[in-house]
Each structure stands twice: as C-alpha cells, then as structure tokens.
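Subject: Cysteine sulfinic acid decarboxylase structure
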Amino acid sequence: MATSRSSPFLDPEVIKYMEDFNQLVMKEALQGGTDRKAKVIDFHIPQELEKIMKLDIGSEPETTDKMLEHCKRIIKYSVKTGHPHFYNQLYSGLEPYSLTGTWLTDALNTNIHTYEVAPVFVLIEKYLMEKMSSKIGFPDGEGIFCPGGSFSNLMAVHLARFRKCGPEIANTGLWGMPKMRLYQSDEAHYSLKKAGLFLGIGMDNVIPIATDDKGRVKADALDAQIQKDKAAGYIPLIYMATSGSTVLGCFDDLNAVADVCSKHKVWMHTDAAWGGGVLLSDKYKHLMSGVDRGDSVAWNLHKMANVPVQASAFVVKETGLLQKGNGLNAEYLFQPDKPYDTSYDIGDRSVQCGRRADAVKVWMQWKALGDSGMGERVERAYENADYFTRRLRESEGFRLVLSEFQCTNICFWYIPPCLRGKEETPEWWAKVGKVAPLIKAKMMKEGTMMIGYQPLTPKKFVNFFRIIIHNPLCDFSDMDLTVSEIKRLGDALTAEDF
C-alpha cells in the first residue's frame, strides 16, 4: 500500500489492484451477474454468511491481494439483480451507460449543493428536471433528486403543509393548529405513514381510502372522507395518488382525483415512483393522464428505467416553492456575492445538505438511449408481461389475482396438484397461502430465480406471487422458463408440506 504523500493512484501496487478489481467486476459482477446460466443467488443464512465473509477488522492493514479476495466474496454471495431471472423487486437490470455515470460521480466525489463545487453536475440536474417536468406536463416545474421515493413523498407532505399553513409554520410549528389529514388509497405505499410519523402529523391522521376491484382509488369515497373531515374541523392537506402501486401495479384515475383535490383545495401528489416510467412511452403514457393537474410527482428512474439504485426525482409544479419551503441560506455555503448567478446553488432547495449527484447516471443513460430507446425499454417490459399473463391463463394450476393488470407487476397463485379439485374453504386458502413461500425457498436454495410474494390484507388475499417484469434482457423464453420452474417446484409439493 502507498505510504507517501503522493497520490495513491500513482502507486504501481494500487494501479494493479484497481486494474484487477475492474476486471473482476466486469467478469463476475457484470458479465457473470447477467448470465442466464449462472445463479441469481448463492444463498446462506446470516449465521453461515457471517463466517464466510470474514467481516472482522483487525488492527493491521491488509494486502491488496487480500482485499481482492474480499471483493470476490462480496460478489459471489450477493444477489445478482441484473440477472434476467431476478423478478423480486421493482428494480432490476444493469445498464452500462448509467453505471459509468455512477462511477464518474464517485470518482469525482463531490456534493451537489453549490455550483462552485459541482458545476457540471448542477447543470445536469437542472436540465433533467426541466426535461422530466416537460414529460409530466409541468411547463414551469422544478425539482431535485432525493434519497429514495419515500423521501420524495415526505417532501410532498412538507411542501403541502408549507403552502397550506404559510411560512409562519416554519417558525411556530404545529402548536395550536387544527389537526391535519393525509389521504391515500388502501393500495398506496406505506411511506405516507412515515411522513405522518416524521412530520408530527401522526400516523392516525393518514387515512386510507377504499379501492375498486382493480386496486384503483374510489374518487367518490375520497370526496366523502374529505367532506367528513372538514366538518369535524380537520385540515385536509394532501392526497397521495398512486401511479403503479407496489403490489398490484394499479394506476389511480388521476383526472378523477384531480377533480376532488381541486374542489377541496387539497394538494395532489402523484407517487409514480414505480409507474412513472410510462411517461417515457407514447403507447402507455395515457395511464397517467391527469398527472399535469397535480402539484408534485415522485418518479424513481432506478425502477422501470433500469438506472442503478438510486435515482429518485421529486418534481414540483410551482417554481420557487422548494426554496421557499426549505431555504435557510446558511452563510458558509450560500453567500450572495459569488462570481456567478447564485440561483444555481441548488442545495437550499432540499432538506439535506449533503446530496449525491444521482442525476448524472440518469443523464448518461438517457443521453445514450435517447427518448426512443427509453420508451422502447418500457414497451418491451409490457410486451413480456402481457405474454407472461397469457401463459399463466393457459397453464394449469395458475390463478390470476386480477383479471387484468395495468403495469408489469403480475400477481398470481399457483395451486399445486395436491390442492386441486378441493372445496375452497378458508382452510384450503390457508394452505394455498403457504405455496408461494415454499416454492420461493426452493428457488433461493437452488439459486435459479427470485420472485416476491405477499398477502394483501385489505383484499383478504393470502400469499401470492408478485413477479416484476422489466429487466431489458428478458424475452419470451425467460417467461416460458419461469412458468416451467414454478410448476416444477410446485408440483413436487405434497399434502405433508401443508
């Protein structure tokens, strides 16, 4: 290891280590991690993995050879989320241009709070926010990248409260104010409850609104609940619409929601963390018709757009509101007498001080693929999802949770032969609810693929599979293999397993 004051990157030993590391990552993480013939995961329980990984840190430094061995183990025992058969989460796939964007920002190691320390990165984020605002339909919109969609949703509540209650709430707080109410569908993400918890509004004041049989909010139920709360003296603050729900992939009717929000002067925020990708496709953007009538949008490009985690944009219709709601003008950062237009010092628009330049990897990928390439990715995912749904309909033992799906989450039960042809009593359904966990455990042990599962309590659904299809490497053959793999593992289940 280098011990002199010269740059470590001039040290021949470090240079060789970096070169060997790059080759290792290319071969094992990138090429190996996207190879259909390779495992998605080499799974071990935590107690076993702790021993394998040799996590203890000693008092003496380790050699570069030892450090490479650690890197090899990290890659070997990590989940390969770029693998075509990783269907477990709303993120998957690997894209070379956005990956190089991540490497660039880490190599340059700066903070995107002021133009003086991140001139290129600030300009990239500013441009991307303008482009994304245009896609949404906010002609004068602005935004920032946040550390996750949950944070973006929290920001929406924060700004809604600031605009509703006025600047004085920043100084006096909630003391003596009427209670506020936050609204979301019963299919929406739990992050709105987190916002209620963090912002002092309270989780009891986050009100779930009933959805229809396809998982879309009932706008008339929202209207009725807001009227009821107003009569009781509450302040209706925000409705968080859902565009691509986490489980069922449902899209609220945003025009119907906008009508209700406009009527009651309620902030309309669209959580499009998952489904926002449809705005990239001329074929599917109609699913978010009406989003332009809202006040803000959360859009995670590390999901349907396949940018590396994380790339979470928060876009607001009203220019200047981010600065008004968050700005504190810290003197050591945001001096007014700099030799450039200080409106480019964007850090004060965020609750954070330190912030990664996540926009760079998004810009790199979008620049490389263009609008057409980004849209084609989305449309290919829908084609694969439609094909997979058809295969489930024609294959014995599969039962769809919904009659049709709006996104590329496909939810279904598999009924193994030992449970078929029996009366569908609550006891029978309880056994069906054990099928997905049993099959997934076998998948992970063999390392063949990963598919998520969950119950859905509001709909009284027992555990079912939720497959997320949007890896750009996937094709119809992967869909066929997935059906076959579930059948293979499911058909091996016997009555004794339940």
